[in-house]
Amino acid sequence: MRLLFVANWKMNPGSVREAVVLWNATKKYARKMRKTSVVVCPPTPFIAPCATKSEGLVFLGAQDVSIFPNGAHTGEVSGNMLKDMHVRYVIVGHSERRALGETNEIVSRKAQATLVAGLTPIVCVGERERGEHGEHLELIETQVKESLRGVSKAKVLKVIIAYEPLWAIGKTSAHAMSPADIHETTLFIRKILSKMYGRTVGMSVPILYGGSVENSNIFAIVHDGAVQGVLVGHASLVAKNVSDMLTALEKAQ
Ligand code: PEP
After folding, report:
1. Which of 48, 80, 81, 162 is deepest in the core (most CB within 10 A)?
2. Average model confidence (pLDDT) for the chain?
3. Mean per-residue pLDDT for 153-166?
4. In angstroms, rounded to a whole number, what is the distance separating the alpha carbons of residues 197 and 155?
5. Is 126 in the pocket of ligand 1 (CB under 6 A)?
6. Is 94 a residue of the active site?
Protein backbone atom coordinates (compact mmCIF):
# COMPACT_ATOMS: atom_id res chain seq x y z
CA MET A 1 0.00 0.00 0.00
CA ARG A 2 1.19 3.53 -0.75
CA LEU A 3 1.84 5.81 2.16
CA LEU A 4 -0.48 8.78 2.45
CA PHE A 5 0.63 12.34 3.16
CA VAL A 6 -2.34 14.50 4.15
CA ALA A 7 -1.76 18.26 4.35
CA ASN A 8 -4.27 19.99 6.61
CA TRP A 9 -3.90 23.69 5.90
CA LYS A 10 -6.57 24.56 8.50
CA MET A 11 -7.51 28.30 8.17
CA ASN A 12 -4.36 29.11 6.17
CA PRO A 13 -2.87 30.66 4.08
CA GLY A 14 -4.29 34.16 4.20
CA SER A 15 -5.04 34.71 0.53
CA VAL A 16 -6.14 32.78 -2.53
CA ARG A 17 -2.93 33.78 -4.31
CA GLU A 18 -0.79 32.17 -1.60
CA ALA A 19 -3.05 29.09 -1.59
CA VAL A 20 -2.62 28.51 -5.32
CA VAL A 21 1.15 29.01 -5.08
CA LEU A 22 1.37 26.44 -2.26
CA TRP A 23 -0.94 24.00 -4.07
CA ASN A 24 1.12 24.23 -7.26
CA ALA A 25 4.38 23.72 -5.36
CA THR A 26 2.94 20.74 -3.45
CA LYS A 27 1.69 19.23 -6.70
CA LYS A 28 5.11 19.68 -8.30
CA TYR A 29 6.86 17.80 -5.46
CA ALA A 30 4.13 15.18 -5.19
CA ARG A 31 4.37 14.33 -8.88
CA LYS A 32 7.96 13.19 -8.35
CA MET A 33 6.89 10.61 -5.77
CA ARG A 34 6.60 6.98 -6.78
CA LYS A 35 5.29 5.44 -3.57
CA THR A 36 3.48 8.23 -1.75
CA SER A 37 0.00 9.63 -2.34
CA VAL A 38 -0.64 13.25 -1.38
CA VAL A 39 -3.90 14.82 -0.23
CA VAL A 40 -4.12 18.60 0.23
CA CYS A 41 -6.99 19.98 2.33
CA PRO A 42 -7.32 23.75 1.78
CA PRO A 43 -9.93 25.96 3.47
CA THR A 44 -13.29 25.62 1.66
CA PRO A 45 -13.12 28.93 -0.35
CA PHE A 46 -9.73 27.90 -1.73
CA ILE A 47 -10.87 24.50 -2.96
CA ALA A 48 -12.35 25.90 -6.18
CA PRO A 49 -9.23 27.83 -7.26
CA CYS A 50 -7.16 24.68 -6.65
CA ALA A 51 -9.71 22.33 -8.17
CA THR A 52 -8.56 20.43 -11.18
CA LYS A 53 -9.19 16.79 -11.92
CA SER A 54 -6.89 14.77 -9.69
CA GLU A 55 -3.51 14.41 -11.29
CA GLY A 56 -1.56 11.24 -10.64
CA LEU A 57 -1.28 10.70 -6.93
CA VAL A 58 -2.17 14.25 -5.81
CA PHE A 59 -5.69 14.72 -4.53
CA LEU A 60 -7.81 17.47 -3.01
CA GLY A 61 -9.41 17.01 0.38
CA ALA A 62 -11.83 19.04 2.49
CA GLN A 63 -11.57 19.83 6.19
CA ASP A 64 -15.23 19.24 6.97
CA VAL A 65 -18.57 18.26 5.42
CA SER A 66 -22.25 18.65 6.22
CA ILE A 67 -24.28 15.77 7.61
CA PHE A 68 -27.00 16.86 5.14
CA PRO A 69 -27.08 16.12 1.40
CA ASN A 70 -28.70 19.47 0.44
CA GLY A 71 -31.37 21.97 1.49
CA ALA A 72 -31.85 24.80 3.96
CA HIS A 73 -28.63 24.50 5.98
CA THR A 74 -26.96 27.90 5.94
CA GLY A 75 -23.19 27.79 5.88
CA GLU A 76 -23.01 24.06 5.21
CA VAL A 77 -21.23 22.32 2.32
CA SER A 78 -22.40 18.90 1.12
CA GLY A 79 -20.36 15.90 0.10
CA ASN A 80 -21.73 16.12 -3.44
CA MET A 81 -20.66 19.77 -3.72
CA LEU A 82 -17.16 18.79 -2.66
CA LYS A 83 -17.15 15.90 -5.09
CA ASP A 84 -18.16 18.28 -7.86
CA MET A 85 -15.04 20.33 -7.05
CA HIS A 86 -12.87 17.20 -7.54
CA VAL A 87 -12.46 16.63 -3.80
CA ARG A 88 -11.72 12.98 -2.98
CA TYR A 89 -11.09 12.97 0.79
CA VAL A 90 -12.75 14.66 3.78
CA ILE A 91 -11.26 15.13 7.24
CA VAL A 92 -14.03 14.48 9.78
CA GLY A 93 -13.96 14.88 13.53
CA HIS A 94 -10.73 16.87 13.69
CA SER A 95 -10.01 17.78 17.32
CA GLU A 96 -10.38 21.47 16.46
CA ARG A 97 -13.93 20.78 15.27
CA ARG A 98 -14.65 18.49 18.21
CA ALA A 99 -13.55 21.42 20.42
CA LEU A 100 -16.36 23.45 18.81
CA GLY A 101 -18.89 20.89 19.98
CA GLU A 102 -18.75 18.12 17.38
CA THR A 103 -19.73 14.88 19.10
CA ASN A 104 -18.90 11.30 18.14
CA GLU A 105 -22.47 11.01 16.85
CA ILE A 106 -22.01 13.98 14.52
CA VAL A 107 -18.65 12.60 13.41
CA SER A 108 -20.27 9.27 12.52
CA ARG A 109 -22.97 11.08 10.52
CA LYS A 110 -20.31 13.08 8.70
CA ALA A 111 -18.33 9.92 7.96
CA GLN A 112 -21.49 8.34 6.54
CA ALA A 113 -22.36 11.46 4.51
CA THR A 114 -18.84 11.40 3.08
CA LEU A 115 -19.16 7.75 2.10
CA VAL A 116 -22.61 8.30 0.56
CA ALA A 117 -21.08 11.01 -1.65
CA GLY A 118 -18.46 8.50 -2.79
CA LEU A 119 -15.62 10.25 -0.95
CA THR A 120 -13.10 8.90 1.56
CA PRO A 121 -13.51 10.04 5.18
CA ILE A 122 -10.38 10.56 7.26
CA VAL A 123 -11.84 10.05 10.73
CA CYS A 124 -9.81 11.72 13.47
CA VAL A 125 -9.53 10.32 16.99
CA GLY A 126 -7.16 11.09 19.83
CA GLU A 127 -6.93 11.79 23.52
CA ARG A 128 -6.52 15.21 25.16
CA GLU A 129 -4.01 13.77 27.65
CA ARG A 130 -2.53 10.41 28.57
CA GLY A 131 -3.80 8.90 31.80
CA GLU A 132 -1.40 7.08 34.10
CA HIS A 133 -3.79 4.16 34.29
CA GLY A 134 -4.62 3.96 30.60
CA GLU A 135 -7.76 6.12 30.85
CA HIS A 136 -6.93 7.54 27.42
CA LEU A 137 -7.35 4.09 25.90
CA GLU A 138 -10.98 4.01 27.03
CA LEU A 139 -11.57 7.39 25.40
CA ILE A 140 -9.94 6.29 22.13
CA GLU A 141 -12.04 3.10 22.16
CA THR A 142 -15.25 5.09 22.64
CA GLN A 143 -14.26 7.57 19.93
CA VAL A 144 -13.49 4.82 17.41
CA LYS A 145 -16.65 2.83 18.18
CA GLU A 146 -19.02 5.80 18.23
CA SER A 147 -17.43 7.70 15.33
CA LEU A 148 -17.83 4.63 13.11
CA ARG A 149 -21.33 3.73 14.31
CA GLY A 150 -23.51 2.97 11.28
CA VAL A 151 -20.52 2.37 8.99
CA SER A 152 -20.86 -1.15 7.60
CA LYS A 153 -18.09 -3.72 7.26
CA ALA A 154 -18.04 -3.19 3.50
CA LYS A 155 -17.86 0.59 3.84
CA VAL A 156 -15.25 0.75 6.59
CA LEU A 157 -12.66 -0.46 4.10
CA LYS A 158 -13.08 2.94 2.44
CA VAL A 159 -12.38 4.76 5.72
CA ILE A 160 -9.03 6.08 6.93
CA ILE A 161 -8.40 6.63 10.64
CA ALA A 162 -6.15 9.50 11.74
CA TYR A 163 -4.81 9.06 15.25
CA GLU A 164 -3.97 12.52 16.56
CA PRO A 165 -3.19 12.90 20.28
CA LEU A 166 -4.31 16.46 21.06
CA TRP A 167 -1.36 17.14 23.35
CA ALA A 168 1.00 16.68 20.41
CA ILE A 169 -0.80 18.92 17.93
CA GLY A 170 0.58 22.28 16.78
CA LYS A 171 3.94 22.03 18.56
CA THR A 172 7.39 21.04 17.32
CA SER A 173 8.79 17.63 16.49
CA ALA A 174 10.26 17.41 20.01
CA HIS A 175 6.69 17.23 21.34
CA ALA A 176 5.39 14.62 18.91
CA MET A 177 4.53 11.17 20.17
CA SER A 178 7.39 8.68 20.04
CA PRO A 179 7.28 6.15 17.20
CA ALA A 180 7.10 3.31 19.76
CA ASP A 181 4.05 4.83 21.44
CA ILE A 182 2.46 5.52 18.05
CA HIS A 183 2.94 1.88 17.13
CA GLU A 184 1.45 0.68 20.40
CA THR A 185 -1.58 2.95 20.09
CA THR A 186 -2.28 2.03 16.48
CA LEU A 187 -2.17 -1.65 17.47
CA PHE A 188 -4.76 -0.83 20.12
CA ILE A 189 -6.93 0.88 17.48
CA ARG A 190 -6.55 -2.18 15.22
CA LYS A 191 -7.74 -4.36 18.11
CA ILE A 192 -10.89 -2.23 18.44
CA LEU A 193 -11.50 -2.32 14.68
CA SER A 194 -10.98 -6.09 14.70
CA LYS A 195 -13.55 -6.49 17.49
CA MET A 196 -16.01 -4.39 15.49
CA TYR A 197 -15.42 -5.72 11.99
CA GLY A 198 -13.30 -8.86 12.24
CA ARG A 199 -9.55 -9.27 12.07
CA THR A 200 -9.11 -9.04 8.29
CA VAL A 201 -10.87 -5.70 8.12
CA GLY A 202 -9.33 -4.51 11.38
CA MET A 203 -5.86 -5.07 10.00
CA SER A 204 -6.67 -3.45 6.64
CA VAL A 205 -8.03 -0.01 7.56
CA PRO A 206 -5.21 2.52 7.04
CA ILE A 207 -4.17 4.43 10.17
CA LEU A 208 -2.35 7.76 9.95
CA TYR A 209 -0.56 9.64 12.71
CA GLY A 210 -0.91 13.40 13.20
CA GLY A 211 0.63 15.77 15.73
CA SER A 212 3.77 17.86 15.15
CA VAL A 213 5.04 15.85 12.22
CA GLU A 214 7.95 17.78 10.73
CA ASN A 215 10.96 17.15 8.48
CA SER A 216 13.05 15.81 11.35
CA ASN A 217 10.66 13.13 12.66
CA ILE A 218 8.56 12.03 9.69
CA PHE A 219 10.88 9.18 8.69
CA ALA A 220 10.96 7.61 12.16
CA ILE A 221 7.23 8.06 12.66
CA VAL A 222 6.39 6.17 9.51
CA HIS A 223 9.24 3.68 9.62
CA ASP A 224 9.14 2.76 13.33
CA GLY A 225 5.61 3.87 14.14
CA ALA A 226 4.27 1.47 11.49
CA VAL A 227 1.54 3.84 10.30
CA GLN A 228 0.24 4.06 6.76
CA GLY A 229 0.86 7.79 6.53
CA VAL A 230 0.69 11.13 8.27
CA LEU A 231 -1.67 14.06 8.74
CA VAL A 232 0.43 17.21 8.76
CA GLY A 233 -0.71 20.66 9.90
CA HIS A 234 1.72 23.59 10.26
CA ALA A 235 4.65 21.94 8.48
CA SER A 236 2.55 21.49 5.32
CA LEU A 237 2.28 25.27 4.87
CA VAL A 238 5.90 25.66 3.80
CA ALA A 239 6.66 24.28 0.33
CA LYS A 240 10.27 23.38 1.13
CA ASN A 241 9.11 21.34 4.14
CA VAL A 242 6.62 19.49 1.98
CA SER A 243 9.39 18.59 -0.45
CA ASP A 244 11.66 17.33 2.36
CA MET A 245 8.87 15.40 4.10
CA LEU A 246 7.78 13.68 0.89
CA THR A 247 11.36 12.68 0.12
CA ALA A 248 11.66 11.19 3.62
CA LEU A 249 8.40 9.29 3.15
CA GLU A 250 9.64 7.74 -0.08
CA LYS A 251 12.75 6.54 1.75
CA ALA A 252 10.72 5.11 4.62
CA GLN A 253 9.01 2.56 2.35
C1 PEP B 1 -3.48 18.65 12.93
O2 PEP B 1 -4.01 19.54 13.60
O3 PEP B 1 -4.15 17.85 12.28
C4 PEP B 1 -2.03 18.55 12.95
C5 PEP B 1 -1.50 17.41 12.70
O6 PEP B 1 -1.36 19.72 13.21
P7 PEP B 1 0.22 19.90 13.42
O8 PEP B 1 0.93 19.09 12.36
O9 PEP B 1 0.42 21.35 13.26
O10 PEP B 1 0.52 19.37 14.77
Report:
1. 162
2. 96
3. 97
4. 11
5. no
6. yes
